[in-house]
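Following up on my earlier message about phosphoric acid mono(formamide)ester. Here are the inputs again, as you asked, copied directly from the submission form:
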Amino acid sequence: MVRSFLRDDDLSPAEQAEVLELALRLKQDRFAERPLEGPKTVAVLFDKTSTRTRVSFAVGISELGGYPLIIDSGSSQLGAKESVADTARVLGRQVEAIVWRTYAQDGLEEMAEHSGVSVVNSLSDDFHPCQLLADLLTVKEHFGDLAGRALAYVGDASNNMAHSYLLASATAGMHVRVAGPANYQPNPEVVARAKEIAEQTGGSVSVGVDAAAAVAEADVVTTDTWISMGQESEKDARIAAFGDYSVTAELFAKAAPDAVFLHCLPAYRGYEVAAEVIDGPQSLIWDEAENRLHAQKALLVWLLA
Ligand code: CP
Ligand code: NVA
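Thanks, got it. Here's what our run produced:
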């Protein structure tokens, strides 16, 4: 059966653990797995800008023996001139997998339905599951384990990163606590799904408006931009709404003494996070950015097996 990775809960707890173990192994021996030898092609589509996703997929596909065919929005017929379903049928006959950064989650589902190959969500308006594989890999590498650790996400609780933290951390058996303003809370269906997963894994989920309560004694503290791609016109309202949810040194000090800080990047110092936190000794952001490569290679190896 062709498997896709469109949202974090497309991997079961056991499957997520398997992918993370493989990622650790591939980080030690980068050319150990060559499923794309040929080279076989993976299409990597971008409807939004990117640095980390573009680099890590291009490098990763090459290291797996394959060819990354990067297609930027506006350079193909997809969108205005051709439907997702027709594009999927064309790509599916020539490439091994499709990686797509886009807006609507529905489009990814349609791509998977009509292409007949594995489709990977490399960020949608709703989820950023590849980022979460990298984040979990970073935490696992640092602490040696994931289950039972508390992770606090503070800021825009309604965005793709908040949703992915909820699902992926619950899948890993972590205690995930999300805090953001009342008007920017997560999708209730995602919260319900995360709670259902946490019941199986021994994790837990809490969602609210109190940043200090979320961060208290947490092992991992994380945040994201207050203005996601596509929300640029809401900039002033968002900066006003999120002011109390900045990860300052004072807020970070409420976490466990050996807590680590994560951020998917790009970061806006002085807004969602203070420079002294993101550039401080407890920040793991550069390992996290590198781990996109290892985690996504593991995911591709796993999907193509
Ligand atoms: N974190 C992340 O996805 O970065 P890019 O937008 O640069 O790909
Ligand atoms: N929430 C951000 C993540 C960027 C990697 C966005 O969607 O723009």
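One observation from looking it over: The chain has a mean pLDDT of 98. Hope that helps, and feel free to reply on this thread.
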